Amino acid sequence: MRIFLTGATGFIGSAVVPELIKAGHQVLGMTRSDAGAQALIDAGAEVHRGTLEDLDSLRSGAAQADAVVHTAFDHDFSKFVENCEKDKRAISALGSALAGSARPLLITSGTGMGSGQHGEAALESVFNTRHPNPRIASELAGNALLEAGINVSVMRLPQVHNPFRQGLISPLIDVAREKGVVAYVGEGLNRWPAGHLSDVARLYRLAVEAGERGARYHAVGEEGVSSREIAESLGRGLNLPVVSIAQEEAAAHFGWLAMFVGLDMAASSAWTQARLDWHPTGPTLIADLDEARYAE
C-alpha cells in the first residue's frame, strides 16, 4: 500500500516509517521542515510538506494514499486542551479525503479512553465518553467519521519508551531536576501502562494492514508499572532522593503534570494481541529507564 503518515519524523512516526517500508509498503511522510524532508528521503520515504494546522495539506496527503496513519500530535502540554481540539480538526480533515472509499484511517489516542468505572484495567472494548482527559476529542472525531461511513480504527498508546524518551516520564525527569527530588503521590501504587517503541511501531503496521473498521487497539506491553517503581528508577538514574508527596501538593510540585501523576491508568492488550497476533518483545519500561542517558 501507499501509506500517508503524519508525524513521520516524530518519536513514534520515525519508527513506523522503516517498519512499513520493510514490509513492502510505500510511505508518503508529512513534515514541515527541510531537515525532516531529508530524514524521510534517507529512510526511503516520499515527502509531503504539511502541518496539523494546514488542513488542506492533510486532505491532499490523504487523497494520494491507499491508507492513512495519523501519529502527529502537538505535545505542548501547556496548551493541551487546545492541541486536542486541533487533533480533532486534523482527524476530520483526513477522514473527509477518504469519503466514498474503504481506504483505512488509523488514528491515535490514549489507553485511558478505555478505562472503566471501578479501577479495572482499560479495555479495547470500552470507550469511556466521560473520561476527563481532553484527548477524548480524538476518539470523538473518529466516531463521527465512523458514523459517516469512513473506515476508521484507533491506536491507543500507553507510555511509549526507549532509553531516550519515555512518554510523560520525560517531563517528569525535568521536574525532578528542577525540584531536586523525584516525587510520587501517596503510596505510589497507581500504575501506568507502557509499550516499547519497537513493539508499538510493529503494531501500527499490523493495524493498518488489517484495516478493520471500528477496531480499537492497545499498544501495551506492560499492563501497569507503579509510579513508585518509576520514581525509584529515576532516583537511581538522576542520583536524587525519592519522596512521597500528598495529593494536595501535586499541583504545586508537578505543574501541568499533576493531572496525570496520581492516576491509576493500567491497561490490557489481551484482545489486541489475540486479534493481530502481536506479542511485545521489547525491553520493559524500568529496563529502559535504568539505561536512560540522563547525562545527555
Description:
- 40% of the residues lie in helices and 20% in strands.
- The chain is α/β, with parallel strands linked by helices.
- A seven-stranded parallel β-sheet has the order 3-2-1-4-5-6-10, sandwiched between helices.
- The model has no long low-confidence stretch (mean pLDDT 95).
* Approximate shape: globular
Structural classification: alpha/beta
**Overall mean pLDDT:** 95
What percent of the residues sit in helical stretches (DSSP H or I)?
A: 25-40%
Q: How are the strands of the largest sheet arranged?
A: 3-2-1-4-5-6-10
- Annotation field: number of helices: 12
Could you spell the SSE succession in H and E letters? EHEHEHEHEHEEHEEHEEHEHHHH
Q: Could you give the count of β-strands?
A: 12
Gyration radius, in Å: 19 Å
Tell me what portion of residues adopts beta-strand conformation. Answer: 15-25%
What summary fits the major beta sheet?
Answer: 7 strands, parallel
Spans of at least 5 consecutive residues whose pLDDT stays below 50 are none
CA-CA gap between termini: 38 Å
Spell out the key features of this protein.
alpha/beta, 12 helices
Would you summarize the structure shown here?
With 296 residues, the protein is of the alpha/beta class. The chain contains 12 helices and 12 strands. The protein has helices at residues 13-22, 34-43, 55-63, 80-96, 136-147, 169-179, 197-210, 227-238, 250-254, 258-261, 270-276, 285-291, and strands at residues 2-6, 26-31, 46-49, 67-70, 104-110, 151-157, 159-161, 182-185, 191-196, 216-218, 222-226, 242-245.
